[in-house]
Specification:
The complex is a heterodimer of chains A (254) and B (221).
Chain A (H helix, E strand, L loop, with lengths): L18 E7 L8 E5 L1 E4 L9 H15 L6 E6 L2 E7 L2 E2 L2 E2 L8 H7 L1 H14 L8 E3 L9 E3 L13 H8 L19 H12 L3 H8 L10 H24 L1 H4 L3
Antiparallel strand pairs in A: 1-2, 3-5, 4-5, 6-7, 8-9
Helix pairs in contact in A: 1-6, 2-3, 3-5, 4-7, 5-7, 6-7
Chain B lengths: L1 E10 L9 E9 L2 E6 L11 H7 L7 H16 L1 H14 L7 E2 L3 E6 L5 H12 L6 H4 L12 E7 L3 E7 L6 E2 L8 E5 L2 E13 L2 E11 L5
Antiparallel strand pairs in B: 1-2, 1-4, 1-5, 2-3, 6-7, 8-11, 9-10, 10-11
Classes of the chains: A alpha+beta (254), B alpha+beta (221).
C-alpha cells in the first residue's frame, strides 16, 4: 500500500518545508504565532540558459498550485539584483534530502504513483525540458512521506532559448520533452496520467491568465509575452489529451 | 603497484558556515570501488541506525534522509565498473548543487593490487573519518579512564535490539568500525574516545562483535 491511492482523486499530500530557526512569539493573534526563518534556494535570471528563470519559476508554481501538482513551494523576493525566486527547501533541519537519482525513479513511481503521474502530466503541460533529477522523493519512510518537483527554469518561456519559439511550441501539439525521469517506467499507469491530463484540460482559462499575466512588465517579460504565453497554454490544455495519446510509445512502458 | 583514487564524503550541515565533517569515502581503481561511510558496517552492506545515532547525534531525527544518501552512495559505488566517469562527475557536482553531502576532496593512493582495495578503504576510513593513526601508534600503556566513574547501561535499539553504553563521565558508544585490539585513543567528530576492547554479545539470537568505547566530550563535564 502506498501513501497515495489509485482512487484518491481529491489531492496530493502537502510537503512540509524546513524551519531554520524559531523566533519569539509575535505576541498577537489567537493562534499564538511565532517568528521563524525558513531555508531556501535563491535564483535569478540566468541570461545564457534561462533568461526568464524568475518568471518561469513563479508561473510554474502558480499553475502547480491551481492543479495541485507536486511542485515545491517558493516565494518571489526582492534583492539587490532585482527580483529573485526562492525555492523553499524540504527535508530536515540543516540536512537536505538528496535529489532523486535516476536509478531510483522506478522506486519513486512505485511509492508515489499518483504524484509521479501528476508531475509528468504537469511537465508535459508546461514544456519542462529539465526535470532530470530535480525532484525530491522520500522513498524510505513508511509515514510522512513526500514527493516534490523543483527547478522550473527550463520551461514555459525558456522551453527553448527563444521566447517566441517557446510560446509557439507550447501552443502546438508537440510533446516538447525529449526525456523525463518518468518516461518509459514500469508501473506508471497510463490511466493515472490520463486522469491528471484531464485535470489540466479542465483548468479554467481564467486560472491560466491569473497565473501568467501580471498586468505589467515583469523583469524582461513584456505584458504581450505574458498574454501570448497564457493563450498558448490555453491551447495546450485542450491539445494535451491528444499529445499524450499520440506519444504513448515514448511516455509509457510497453 | 597500481593507483587508486578516492573521494572523501563530507557532511555540510550549514552552507552558511561551511565546515564539512568527513563521514566516509569512496575509493576506486580499475572499475572496482569500495564505500565506507559512518553508519555502514564494513563487513555488511546494511545501515545501522544505532551506529549512526551514536556517531552523528546532531542529525537525530534525520536518519531517514541519511539512509537515502546511503542508498544513493551504495548504488553509485556499485556501478563504478560501468559508469566511472559519470560517477566521478556526479560526485564532483554535489557541492555545486548545494547538497548536504559533498565529495569535492579527492586524492590518489598507490595500492599493491586490486585485492587490497577493501583493506585500503578501511584504513583510509580510519585515518580520514575516525582520525585514527596507524596501528602501532594507537596502542597505549596507560588507561585514560582511571579516576573516572564507570557506569554500565543498556538501552533498546531499533536496529539491533540492544545497544550497550559504557559511561565514563560522558558516554560511550558501540561502533562497528574495525579497529585493532588493544587500548587506543582517537578523536571522532570532535570528541575524544578511548576504545579498549571488543566484546561478543548475543543479540536477537545472533552473536555480534562490538567495540566498546569510552568517550569524553562536551557532556562529560
Amino acid at each position: 500500500m502506498t501513501n497515495d491511492d489509485t482512487t484518491a482523486h481529491a489531492g496530493l499530500q502537502p510537503v512540509p518545508i524546513r524551519i531554520r530557526s524559531l523566533g519569539k512569539e509575535v505576541g498577537a493573534g489567537v493562534t499564538a504565532p511565532y517568528f521563524c526563518t525558513v531555508s531556501g534556494i535563491l535564483k535569478f535570471d540566468y541570461p545564457a540558459e534561462a533568461p526568464n528563470c524568475v518568471y518561469n519559476e513563479l508561473v510554474a508554481m502558480r499553475l502547480g498550485c491551481c492543479l495541485g501538482a507536486p511542485v515545491a513551494s517558493g516565494a518571489l523576493v526582492s534583492a539587490e539584483r532585482g527580483e529573485g525566486f526562492v525555492s523553499l527547501m524540504i527535508g530536515a533541519r540543516n540536512f537536505k534530502l538528496p535529489d532523486l537519482d535516476m536509478e531510483f525513479r522506478a522506486d519513486a513511481v512505485r511509492a508515489f504513483p499518483n504524484h509521479a503521474a501528476s508531475l509528468l502530466a504537469f511537465d508535459i503541460f508546461i514544456g519542462n525540458v529539465d526535470r532530470g533529477s530535480n525532484l525530491k522523493a522520500d522513498i524510505k519512510r513508511k509515514n510522512l512521506q513526500f514527493f516534490s518537483g523543483f527547478d522550473h527554469s527550463h520551461c514555459l518561456l525558456d522551453t527553448t532559448l527563444d521566447i517566441d519559439q517557446s510560446i509557439e511550441l507550447l501552443g502546438s501539439d508537440e510533446l516538447i520533452l525529449q526525456e523525463h525521469p518518468f518516461f518509459n517506467i514500469p508501473g506508471l499507469s497510463a490511466g493515472r496520467v490520463d486522469y491528471y491530463v484531464e485535470k489540466i484540460t479542465n483548468l479554467s482559462e481564467d486560472s491560466i491568465l491569473s497565473a501568467c499575466v501580471f498586468g505589467d512588465v515583469f523583469r524582461r517579460v513584456t505584458l504581450d509575452q505574458q498574454e501570448r504565453l497564457a493563450e498558448a497554454l490555453c491551447r495546450r490544455r485542450e491539445l494535451l489529451p491528444e499529445i499524450v495519446q499520440s506519444h504513448r510509445n515514448i511516455i509509457f512502458y510497453p | 603497484m597500481i593507483s587508486a583514487r578516492y573521494h572523501a564524503l563530507q557532511l555540510v550541515l550549514d552552507h552558511g558556515s561551511p565546515e564539512p565533517v568527513t563521514i566516509g569515502l569512496i575509493i576506486y581503481a580499475e572499475g572496482r570501488s569500495e564505500l565506507r561511510l559512518i553508519g555502514l558496517r564494513a563487513d555488511r552492506a546494511d545501515f545501522s541506525r544505532g551506529m549512526f545515532r551514536h556517531a552523528l547525534p546532531e542529525l537525530a531525527g534525520a536518519e531517514w534522509i541519511y539512509e537515502q544518501w546511503v542508498d544513493r552512495l551504495q548504488r553509485l559505488s556499485a556501478r563504478f565498473s560501468e559508469h566511472a566517469e559519470e560517477n566521478i562527475r556526479l560526485l564532483r557536482h554535489l557541492e555545486s548543487r548545494g547538497e548536504s553531502i559533498i565529495a569535492s576532496v579527492e586524492g590518489e593512493v598507490p595500492i599493491p593490487d586490486l585485492e587490497s582495495l577493501p583493506d585500503i578503504a578501511t584504513a583510509l576510513f580510519g585515518e580520514m573519518v575516525m582520525n585514527r593513526p596507524s596501528e602501532d601508534a594507537i596502542r597505549a600503556t596507560d588507561s585514560p579512564c582511571s579516576g573516572f566513574p564507570f557506569r554500565f547501561a543498556c538501552s533498546e535499539s531499533e536496529q539491533l535490539g540492544w545497544v550497550f553504553r559504557l559511561f565514563c563521565g560522558g558516554w560511550c558508544s558501540v561502533t562497528g568500525n574495525t579497529i585493532p585490539p588493544g587500548l587506543c585513543f582517537r578523536s571522532v567528530l570532535g570528541y575524544f574516545r578511548a576504545f579498549f576492547r571488543y566484546g561478543l554479545f548475543s543479540l536477537n539470537d545472533s552473536e555480534e562483535f562490538f567495540w566498546l568505547g569510552i568517550e569524553r566530550g562536551e557532556e562529560s563535564t
